């Protein structure tokens, strides 16, 4: 976070009272959402309420020991993020202070107070290469040059959206290739505006776009149940609710690792410290499946763990989505994971109750639904103001108390998002992972994404999927009967259906995130596994019609090999052989 | 230091006093009553001219003439290596008639958050000697793994067993003895009898000399309970990160801690959250639990085993629910298994260790560990399901395959889980029992185990016996 340099409207007030993260000050000349520095230590805070002479501030750091009478200084600027090269391969706290820089500045593994650092390194030099020439007309948002930010990503230097008015253009007066730090001007426009690689943008305000479009490309995740049954689009929104221990975080991590987005912004909002450490340690070593580069080269991390100040937890979601929008403006597909939006909602609740606002449902503030909607609406497939197309996909984990999906955060989220991946504690208990419940989950993107899958993977993608869904539905119904009378009391064809469904569950829906091969399953393999099970299904039912008893059919030795497809690296050949083995094995029975 | 005799209101554990100087949030306060008794408290809210003080020992005996002193600093814990072997009260004062404690440092009990960038990911396997934990829900150094129990269950015995047996085998093989843990025990609102059991066990096994005990008993002031765990964790952090100890923290009972939080919230007339607990309980609990871990470049570690009794054995109650969302897994103590006499009565199905996958496998425990654990989970879950069905249709109506799973589930409980509170099994032994059990199932059912491990560990004879038995 940058210390604002503007001096307009700066004023100093005096602390009147302190209660946890909420401080009120008097005689402070401030606007709503201005950033202020509180107390002798200069703790960062934000104005959240103004009443007469009294200004209420939420403080992003611990307030122990801060007392009335200490000064409050207004910067006169809203909470903003620094945008520019250097955001990838970085890890920030909720107000975009780089945690590695803080460690150095504080000389301690603990987070101290009153230490500030800019979100991007202001001194690092970058090799700037212009893409426009002197005399070219540029408008707001237009790309004027590129910088190689990481091995994977070329950072596009753009005219800041607030440098020119909508529709206004200006000619490039001067532009130069070379090595610059982010504060130096790399170009000058004929109206006198200097452009550097550094922009600032207020986090609570969406960056401008031309229009939102219907997303038609899937965000391929390499997770069978997601790609196969409940796909999300690039620019789509999804929620992953589930009780503790059901695998929200593993699912989010899998998406961050394998989703085919250009940029990943991972927001750890009020979650465990060790989980963020895992990401920091793992991602630099993991390979991007698209190009073999380290995963960190396309990732920006925001970590506000559960024991870090609650006000910064409220802001970390906004910090994340603003960074995502900035890369979208360059024409990239960005995926944002927020783990967990419930902690964000709770931070709002905590601050709201300290303000003694009238509570809504379960103590959450009445504006909870509006805030959630505003956040998810910033996702989408957009035409950017510079004419490129880019997307922000938002995937939010939800942690409902007691695993009860009827609580306000889950319900308000479901009203907005179009993909719902319901995690199920019961499945997790039997180590069925990912424990996504196939009866409750849904994706409203299915129809608009089918053409892509038909084109890229297989012509009968949708009908094969429907077959699997039908078998699983039938199994659910049959299981109710089995619970009462036992499996052997069912007619033979239904017993066979149960067996087919079992393979769907074990070989298709389950996927081992910790197995080096099974962890990522390309859509083609996802499809082929399904066709293998279907081969078994078709052959088995033919044999049944020919009078072969069901025990003999399912005893065919090749069949359990279906469960091993997931771990095969050379799956094509394996599947071909397996299909004919199964067919031969079953046909030999009659 | 200024003294005030300006108390305006006394309500529950809170005292409001007028002041004419700025008082810092969280500052420590001493209140002296007319009888000469000194009580300690902490500033909860500081506004112009008036402060709200939470009194740890309770407000009884305070009148409006009592004098209030503000010490100008936040609550500190005097720490030194000499604390090992000592017994302290819930506010950190010695109660064991030992010599006075000379602190090396005085540390703020509200610990600052560890920078996630400075953490080291926990992945050193701790051998607790308990199969249900080592085999199925492995604990690693720097983890926070609570025990979810309910009233009347032997959670204390399990915690004692872990404290007694826990070691890190890796260092054993390096020629060392296997490093022992320094145990820091924080009792919050437990009964004198429970406390005695812990103390006796500590003394009997000689564990006391590598332990620090903090005792806030059921009849001690409830408000004091809100500082006890912070004292405990401050001591733990000091020993771990400055004195290179591997520290095992046992906190019991977190439910009493949360009740104390609710009491203070109610006295302050805060807007209550679920079931009357304060809305900030998640943040508050996180500030305790997140103080477990390892730090890059430091030798020691803090591992936490908080114990909580779930009201009504209901894990959707806010206390276990919020805890489960913060901690790295949980171990369930199950009343049904307990009444069947299993020791320890751990129900592995809902139990979980989130850090297990990184702490096990080749070079750490054994290559097949993960697969064995997954397969046993799946098989036990299937057996459990079938038990319901057996009650309705009887065993004869089930297929041969189903019967094998039922046998597996029974054997899993009697052979694997029920080892007794005094037995310690090393990881090899635990996995060996695992393979004996898995060998009751046909090889083709072991779809979660790598083929190479089946080859190496599967007991062929057992399978034949099982087949023979089934044929009889």
UniProtKB/TrEMBL annotation, chain A:
SUPFAM superfamilies, per the entry: C-terminal domain of alpha and beta subunits of F1 ATP synthase (SSF47917), N-terminal domain of alpha and beta subunits of F1 ATP synthase (SSF50615), P-loop containing nucleoside triphosphate hydrolases (SSF52540)
Q: Give the way it sits in the membrane.
A: Peripheral membrane protein
GO MF = ATP binding; proton-transporting ATP synthase activity, rotational mechanism; proton-transporting ATPase activity, rotational mechanism
Q: So what does this thing catalyse?
A: ATP + H2O + 4 H(+)(in) = ADP + phosphate + 5 H(+)(out)
Domain ATP synthase A/B type C-terminal: where?
A: 451-553
Concerning its family, UniProt says: Belongs to the ATPase alpha/beta chains family.
**What binding partners and quaternary form does the record give?**
Has multiple subunits with at least A(3), B(3), C, D, E, F, H, I and proteolipid K(x).
What's the name of the protein? A-type ATP synthase subunit A
Q: Which organism is it from?
A: Halorubrum vacuolatum
Its gene?
Answer: atpA
UniProtKB/TrEMBL annotation, chain B:
Q: Which residues does the UniProt record annotate as the domain ATPase F1/V1/A1 complex alpha/beta subunit N-terminal?
A: 7-72
Keywords of the record, alphabetical order, are: ATP synthesis, Cell membrane, Hydrogen ion transport, Ion transport, Membrane, Transport
Q: Which organism is it from?
A: Halorubrum vacuolatum (Natronobacterium vacuolatum)
In terms of CDD domains, this protein maps to: ATP-synt_V_A-type_beta_C, ATP-synt_V_A-type_beta_N, V_A-ATPase_B
| InterPro entries tied to this protein | ATP-synt_VA_C (IPR055190), ATPase_a/bsu_AS (IPR020003), ATPase_F1/V1/A1_a/bsu_N (IPR004100), ATPase_F1/V1/A1_a/bsu_nucl-bd (IPR000194), P-loop_NTPase (IPR027417), V-ATPase_su_B/beta (IPR022879)
Q: Name the Pfam families for this protein.
A: ATP-synt_ab (PF00006), ATP-synt_ab_N (PF02874), ATP-synt_VA_C (PF22919)
Protein name as it appears in the record = A-type ATP synthase subunit B
Q: Which residues form the ATPase F1/V1/A1 complex alpha/beta subunit nucleotide-binding domain?
A: 129-353
Major localization class: membrane
Give the multimer and partner information: Has multiple subunits with at least A(3), B(3), C, D, E, F, H, I and proteolipid K(x).
Q: Which family does it belong to?
A: Belongs to the ATPase alpha/beta chains family.
């Amino acid at each position: 976070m940058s210390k604002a340099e503007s001096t307009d409207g700066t004023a100093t007030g005096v602390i009147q009272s302190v209660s946890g993260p909420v401080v009120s000050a008097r005689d402070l000349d401030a606007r709503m959402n201005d950033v202020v520095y509180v107390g002798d230590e200069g703790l960062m805070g934000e104005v959240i309420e103004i009443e007469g002479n009294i200004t209420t501030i939420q403080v992003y750091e611990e307030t122990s020991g801060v007392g009335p009478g200490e000064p409050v200084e207004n910067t006169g600027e809203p909470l903003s993020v620094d945008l520019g090269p250097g955001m990838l391969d970085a890890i920030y706290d909720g107000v975009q202070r780089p945690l590695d820089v803080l460690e150095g500045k504080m000389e301690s593994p603990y987070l101290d107070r009153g230490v500030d650092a800019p979100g991007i390194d202001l001194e690092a030099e970058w090799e700037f290469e212009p893409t426009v020439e002197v005399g070219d007309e540029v408008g707001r948002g237009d790309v004027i040059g590129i910088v190689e930010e990481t091995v994977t990503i070329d950072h596009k230097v753009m005219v800041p959206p607030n440098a020119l008015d909508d529709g206004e253009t200006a000619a490039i007066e001067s532009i130069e290739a070379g090595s610059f730090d982010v504060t130096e001007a790399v170009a000058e426009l004929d109206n006198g505006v200097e452009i550097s690689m550094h922009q600032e943008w207020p986090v609570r305000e969406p960056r401008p776009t031309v229009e939102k479009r219907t997303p038609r490309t899937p965000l391929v995740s390499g997770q069978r149940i997601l790609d196969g049954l409940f796909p999300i689009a690039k620019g789509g929104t999804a929620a992953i609710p589930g009780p503790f221990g059901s695998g929200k975080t593993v699912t989010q991590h899998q998406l961050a690792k394998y989703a085919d987005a250009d940029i990943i912004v991972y927001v750890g909002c009020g979650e465990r410290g060790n989980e963020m450490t895992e990401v920091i340690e793992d991602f630099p070593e993991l390979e991007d499946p698209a190009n073999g580069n380290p995963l960190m080269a396309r990732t920006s991390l925001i970590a506000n763990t559960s024991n870090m100040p609650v006000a910064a937890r409220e802001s970390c979601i906004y910090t994340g989505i603003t960074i995502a929008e900035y890369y979208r403006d360059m024409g990239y597909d960005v995926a944002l994971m927020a783990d967990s939006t419930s902690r964000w909602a709770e931070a709002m609740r905590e601050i709201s109750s300290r303000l003694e606002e009238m509570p809504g449902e379960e103590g959450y503030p009445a504006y909870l639904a509006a805030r959630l909607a505003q956040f998810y609406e910033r996702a989408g497939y957009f035409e950017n103001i510079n004419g490129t197309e880019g997307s922000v996909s938002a995937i939010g984990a939800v942690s409902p108390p007691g695993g009860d999906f009827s609580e306000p955060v889950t319900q308000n989220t479901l009203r907005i998002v179009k993909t719902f991946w319901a995690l199920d504690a019961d499945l997790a208990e039997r180590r069925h992972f990912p424990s996504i419940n196939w009866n409750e989950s849904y994706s409203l993107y299915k129809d608009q994404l089918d053409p892509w899958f038909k084109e890229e993977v297989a012509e009968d993608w949708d009908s094969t999927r429907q077959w699997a869904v039908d078998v699983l539905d039938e199994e659910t119904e049959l299981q109710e009967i089995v619970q009462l009378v036992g499996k052997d009391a069912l007619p033979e064809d239904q017993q066979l259906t149960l067996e087919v469904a079992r393979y769907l569950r074990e070989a298709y829906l389950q996927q081992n995130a910790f197995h080096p091969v099974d962890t990522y399953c390309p859509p083609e393999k996802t499809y082929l596994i399904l066709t293998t099970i279907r081969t078994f299904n078709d052959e088995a039912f033919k044999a049944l019609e020919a009078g072969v008893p069901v025990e003999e059919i399912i005893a065919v030795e090749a069949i359990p090999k279906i469960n091993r497809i997931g771990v095969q690296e050379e799956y094509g050949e394996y599947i071909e052989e397996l299909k004919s083995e199964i067919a031969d094995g079953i046909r030999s029975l009659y | 230091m200024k003294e005030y005799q300006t108390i305006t209101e006394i309500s529950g554990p809170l005292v409001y006093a007028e002041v004419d100087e700025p008082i810092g949030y969280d500052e420590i306060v001493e209140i002296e009553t007319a009888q000469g008794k000194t009580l300690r408290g902490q500033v909860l809210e500081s506004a112009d001219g008036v402060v709200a003080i939470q009194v740890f020992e309770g407000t009884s005996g305070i009148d409006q003439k009592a004098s209030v002193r503000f010490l100008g600093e936040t609550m500190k814990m005097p720490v030194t290596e000499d604390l090992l072997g000592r017994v302290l009260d819930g506010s950190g004062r010695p109660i064991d008639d030992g010599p006075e404690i000379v602190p090396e440092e005085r540390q703020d009990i509200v610990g600052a958050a560890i920078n996630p960038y400075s953490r080291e990911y926990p992945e050193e396997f701790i051998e607790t000697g308990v199969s249900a934990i080592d085999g199925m829900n492995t604990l690693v150094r720097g983890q926070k793994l609570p025990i979810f129990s309910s009233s009347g269950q032997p959670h204390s015995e399990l915690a004692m067993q872990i404290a007694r047996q826990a070691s890190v085998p890796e260092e054993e093989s390096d020629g060392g003895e296997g490093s022992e843990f320094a145990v820091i025990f924080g009792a919050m609102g437990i009964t004198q009898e429970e406390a005695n059991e812990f103390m006796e066990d500590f003394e009997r096994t000689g564990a006391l000399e590598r332990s620090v005990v903090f005792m806030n008993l059921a009849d001690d002031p409830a408000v004091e309970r809100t500082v006890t765990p912070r004292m405990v964790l401050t001591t733990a952090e000091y020993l771990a990160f400055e004195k290179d100890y591997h520290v095992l923290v046992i906190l019991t009972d977190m439910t009493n801690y949360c009740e104390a939080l609710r009491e203070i919230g109610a006295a302050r007339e805060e807007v209550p959250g679920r079931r009357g607990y304060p809305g900030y309980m998640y943040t508050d609990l996180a500030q305790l639990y997140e103080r477990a871990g390892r730090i890059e470049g430091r030798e020691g570690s803090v591992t936490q085993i908080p114990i909580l009794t779930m009201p009504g054995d209901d894990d959707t109650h806010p206390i276990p629910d919020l805890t489960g969302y913060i901690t790295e897994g949980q171990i369930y103590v199950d009343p049904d298994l307990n009444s069947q006499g299993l020791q320890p009565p751990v129900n592995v199905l809902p139990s979980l260790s989130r850090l297990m996958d990184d702490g096990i496998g080749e070079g750490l425990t054994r290559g097949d560990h993960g697969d064995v654990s997954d397969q046993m989970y799946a098989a036990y879950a299937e057996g459990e399901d079938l038990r319901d069905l057996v009650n309705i249709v009887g065993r004869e109506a089930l297929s041969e395959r189903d019967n094998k799973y039922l046998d597996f589930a029974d054997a899993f409980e009697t052979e694997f889980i029920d080892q007794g509170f005094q037995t310690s099994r090393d990881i090899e032994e635990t996995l060996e029992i695992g393979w004996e059990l898995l060998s009751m199932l046909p090889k083709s059912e072991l779809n979660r185990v790598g083929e190479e491990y089946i080859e190496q560990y599967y007991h062929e004879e057992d399978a034949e016996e099982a087949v023979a038995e089934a044929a009889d």
